[in-house]
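Wait, can you check?
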Amino acid sequence: QVQLVESGGGLVQAGASLRLTCTASASEFTIGAAAWYRQAPGKQRELVARITNGGTTTYTDSMKGRCTISRDSARKTVYLQMNSLKPEDTAVYYCNADLSSTSPSRRLRELWGRGTQVTVSS
């Protein structure tokens, strides 16, 4: 079963930057529309950024414009670049994406990764 796999999280100090990555575990799949969410302890899951299949990006105010979502031209990886990190950014960050393959033909809608922990210390 194909899965989304997030990486790039870790423990950083306030003001640092991180780039999270999201990839499909099976090489035959490509990524269409995708989004990054985060969930802090005791908080609701929060949308951080979205990218459409056509490449249009949208953001919430959650990170005050400090993040950028992107997708490589091969549609193999989705990134979330985060800058000027703050302790309140501490959360598990989840990738959510549409996956498709052509051989064999298969589509998976809004598949969730298992998350990557981002911890920002003061």
About this structure: The mean pLDDT is 95. DSSP finds no helices and eleven strands in the chain. Residues 28 and 103 are 7 Å apart (CA to CA).
